[in-house]
Amino acid sequence: MGEAEKTFISGLHEKLVEDKVIDESQLEPDFAKEIVKHGGKDVMTCLQCGNCTGVCPISLKIDYKTRSIIKFCQFGLKKFTLETRWVCATCYRCYEHCPADINPAEVMIALRHIAIKEGVIPPFIRMAAMTLVNYGQSIKPDPEIERVRRELELEDMPSRNPEFAKVVREINLLIRSTGYDKLIGIESEVKK
Amino acid sequence: MSSPEPLGENDAERPQEPRRKTSQAPRIGVFVCHCGSNIAGTVDMPKVTEAVEKVPGVVVAKENKYTCSDLGQDEIIKAIKENDVDRVVVAACSPRMHEPTFRSCIKEAGLNPYMLQMVNLREQCSWVHSREKEKATEKAADLVKMGIAKAARLEPLEAREVPVEQSSLVIGGGVAGIQAALDLAQMGFKVYLVESEPSIGGRMAQLDKTFPTGDCAICILAPKMVELSRHPNITLLSYSEVEDVTGFIGNYDVKIRRKARYVVEDKCVGCGECADACPVKVDNKFDMGFGKRKAIYVPFPQAVPLKYTIDRENCIYFKTGKCKSCVKACANEAIDHEMEDEIVDVKVGTIICATGFDIYVPMKRGVYKYWEYQNVITGLELERLLNASGPTGGHLIRPSDGETPRRVAFIQCVGSRNKKIGTDYCSRVCCMYSMKNAQIIKEHEPDTEIAVYYNDIRAFGKGFEELYHRVREEYGIEFIRGRPAKLSENPETNSITIRAEETLLNKITEREFDLIVLSTGLKPSEGSLKIGKILSLSLSPDGFFMEAHPKLRPVDTAVEGIYLAGCAQGPKDIPDSVAQAKAAAASAASIMSGKKVKIEPLTALVDEELCIGCELCVDMCPYGAPEMVESEKGTRARIVEALCHGCGTCVAACPQKAIKANQFTDEQIASEIVSALEGEDGATGEERKASKKAEEA
């Protein structure tokens, strides 16, 4: 893993295919269909031209190849595809260039859905969800940001506003009623 | 079985029983085919046979493993004779496959060939319901019963014969059109070849060498062009366009517009004095805009006919009314600025459509910067730059500075295999022409560094794989598997850096080149849409003309007497184009050599008593088959049988129900519907509903 990657996504690591031989037991033959079920296009139409990798702003910085992830999906190598799909910025450049008209960015989103369902949840997802539950925004209120805002004579962050508590309550209710809290294991944080 | 409701029949005249030529009740023979396991694997055949045996009118019902085999046909003939059968139902595959087989089979047994009803148990039942065997069996029985119901109402029909004009029209003067015209002329038929450009030769004339052998394209094409122009059976109509085609197989009337070239063909000797005198210089389209030509020109030195043409848009005389330098220079007084377009009418028996292809033009704001960077060119532009008679005399240069490029990259699949822009198909020639051009560049300048950015290499033809090996092994051409993602130009040197993933290395690469060649794909030629409308041809999803059958009728179209040759039907290389041209010529000849052609009697027919002469059918018919004629009863419609395709549009449109379609009369179709709605007990859907209601009450 490159240095840049460590800085970008702390707490995640690329699972490398180190097996010399990949046998059938490692493959999930219907993985492509599962991706379609979760909102991605059919990865089987991919011609492996590599255009997506070439235009991907993440690929240029870290060892992350859009094309090879699509190949893993075609092949059914599910276990290697679930850990690091969070680095995709969903800028949709890959979609714009793809001659097979797949949308790799949406495949990445589908992979995230699958990963969550399978319980492969990176720590920062839980952290962001907890911040949302507590403050009504996914980034924790930061005194430094607030100081700069005040200097620039901008309004305070909404989370400072006492009336915002109503919004936070609504968010809590929505998270609980959709079962999202249970899905990612933050039930104890969600207020009744 | 209940008799059908009267539909648009004159009640007073309507017979109580379905009309029949024979006075006796119909004697129907039903033959159910297993098609090996194609049908029998899904449908329970004995059950179907058993169900249809009991239907009134059926005198014999048999199953056979392969009804289309000699044995199967013999059985039909035997059953017809033994049981005095007068009409036959064959429940097997699509009528597109074997209807002609069984028509001739029952004809052999002494029946009218149109006393046959095909029931499609394969494409429309077993193949689509392979997972629901019981329901499929039920449906199969229903389908056969419907066929029996219609068969009971079949009437004998006679096919008519019409004479065939012993001449052919070839549209397009590329290598395919040239070959087809030559073959037909050789066989003794009169040929009219229409070419929209001033010279024949088409795209092949623009190429430098041909893959994989490296023959000079014009050197092998020019002799054919000359032979064509001198052949006594061929009338060459260059700089002309087909305006209109009417008629039918064997008897097409063609209207051709001879565009004014402002030079009298008979007087021009092709000396070129006029072009020397002409003061106007414009980009030469034939050289893809690299070279210059005059406003009076021949597109290339080997042009056939070698007759000059004035390009009206650029000629000073047409702009200002002055100049006429060419007129002064011409010793033969061949130039006539007052010339006008001329319409020529010809009559032909067959038509060969060889309208060729156009090169895909890269997008204006595309990734490959064709319109922004001078040093990005297309494959056909490279052909002209490499061509000895091209604008640079065969010396490869960079357009930006005229220098010889030291590093050249080819980018494959530009405008092919791209779902985003709707060109899903492979253009079939780009892999090979790039390799061939790479080899030529290496032969000119052995130190040139060449890389080919490819996705998949398609080297399927004879000698193609060998060329692929040769360019890699002998010429050291590098193949990089990846589609370039970004091109960026160095503003000082005009060299271009390509960023692409080398997918086999799993690494992103960045490399600089002096010249980029986009291996642009093929698309249907611009004029083909117009020609397609004139000839009523259908298009495949890729936009090229569709053949009648992808395997068995690859040069025929759905319109009888019209054939396809070359890239009009889809991208192909020169050998394939020539082969298809020869096949199209042979197909056309097989119709013309018969002198007469049979016209299917499955046409529409007007009842003069009912027709009110409203002309709605004339407006609706896509083939121009109905015509209005004066009779004792007034103006009435009449269908020209030879033009009618039996589509039924006029039948549905006629407000008087005065038109009937042979083999698809309202009575026949209604009988099928009634039969489909009948239950086991013979009750119709309405009756069943009523009895169910009564039960519930």
- Give the biggest sheet of chain B: 5 strands, parallel
Highest CATH level, the class of the largest domain in chain B: Alpha Beta
Radius of gyration of chain B: 32 Å
How far apart are the termini of chain A?
42 Å
Number of domains of chain B: 4
Indicate the proportion of strand residues of chain B: 15-25%
CATH architecture of the largest domain in chain A: Orthogonal Bundle
Structural class of chain A: mainly alpha
Q: From the 3D structure, determine the CATH topology of the largest domain in chain A.
A: Fumarate Reductase Iron-sulfur Protein, Chain B, domain 2
Main beta sheet of chain A:
none
Oligomer: heterodimer
List the domain count of chain A as a whole number: 2
* Count of helical regions of chain B: 19
Question: How would you name the CATH homologous superfamily of the largest domain in chain B?
Answer: FAD/NAD(P)-binding domain
Question: Brief overview, please?
Answer:
The complex is a heterodimer of chains A (192) and B (697). Chain A has 192 residues and is an all-alpha fold.
Notable features of this structure?
heterodimer, A: 192 residues, Fumarate Reductase Iron-sulfur Protein, Chain B, domain 2, 46% helix, 0% strand, globular, disordered N terminus, B: 697 residues, alpha/beta, Rossmann fold, FAD/NAD(P)-binding domain, 4 domains, 5-stranded parallel sheet, 19 helices
